[in-house]
Amino acid sequence: MNDATNGSGATFSAAAWQANLPVFEAIRTMAFNEQLAQGTLPADRFKHYMIQDAHYLIAFGRALAIAAAKADDADGLVQFSEAAKVAVIVERSLHTDFFRSFGVAPAEFDGTEMSPACHHYTSFLIGTAHAEPYAVVLAALLPCFWIYAEIGRDILARAVRPNPYDAWIDTYAGEDFHEAVRAVIATTDRAAATASPQVRARMHEAYKRASQLEWMFWDSAWRLASWPV
Ligand SMILES: Cc1ncc(CO)c(N)n1
């Protein structure tokens, strides 16, 4: 039983993608993403998204660094420490390029705390990264990569160009990101292949929860959500 399917006939990634197709479809058809593709998304909603994403990416980087520390081989250590570094590089590009072009002043970012959805998602990732075995940590991190890659390509295919959000679309539709995503899928499937049925079930739960939190993150930006009290 050393194939990538754990004897079940389907890779973890294929099974998880299929099981969560309704969540992906809900994300794909959100007004936020439809208007982003059309170039008509109001700037205040994109600004909310960017500020929250800058908070998110630092926490995502920390969770990736914990995954790196838990890796069961040197390849995984390199893969996830590199991914942690890239998350911080992307966060810095939000500050230097996107914040500037959309008029987010440093003081506005500094004065904006995490939204409830961002807090929920990042707490879930960091909590899972600390508490769960490597395979479950990878399953929690996979939707962050995979959903963005598929949404990026989907938006690119229907995008009106030029579009104020071209740079965002190109980041996630670009080949560099997709190559990294294929590698994370492969590593997650390898970890699933040797996981016990119990761990594999927890992988599915973690994958599902992260997918739902992706939807909630976009929904929160759409609603310009903040803390109710
Ligand atoms: C919320 C969120 N999920 C995933 C990504 C891509 O890694 C991102 N930038 N933001």
Automatic annotation (TrEMBL):
Active-site residues annotated for this sequence: E214
Does Hydrolase appear among the keywords?
Answer: yes
Q: Which GO terms describe its molecular function?
A: thiaminase activity
Among the GO biological process terms of this entry, one is:
thiamine diphosphate biosynthetic process
A Pfam family for this UniProt protein? TENA_THI-4
Q: Which InterPro entries match?
A: Haem_Oase-like_multi-hlx (IPR016084), TenA_E (IPR026285), Thiaminase-2/PQQC (IPR004305), Thiaminase_II (IPR027574), Thiamine_Salvage_TenA (IPR050967)
Name the UniProt key words of this record, in alphabetical order: Hydrolase, Thiamine biosynthesis
Catalytic activity as recorded in UniProt: 4-amino-5-aminomethyl-2-methylpyrimidine + H2O = 4-amino-5-hydroxymethyl-2-methylpyrimidine + NH4(+); thiamine + H2O = 5-(2-hydroxyethyl)-4-methylthiazole + 4-amino-5-hydroxymethyl-2-methylpyrimidine + H(+)
* Gene3D superfamilies membership: Heme oxygenase-like
Metabolic or biological pathway, per its Swiss-Prot or TrEMBL entry: Cofactor biosynthesis; thiamine diphosphate biosynthesis
Q: Which SUPFAM superfamilies match?
A: Heme oxygenase-like
Name the CDD domains on file. Answer: TenA_C-like
- Its protein name is Aminopyrimidine aminohydrolase
- Native source organism of the sequence: Ancylobacter pratisalsi
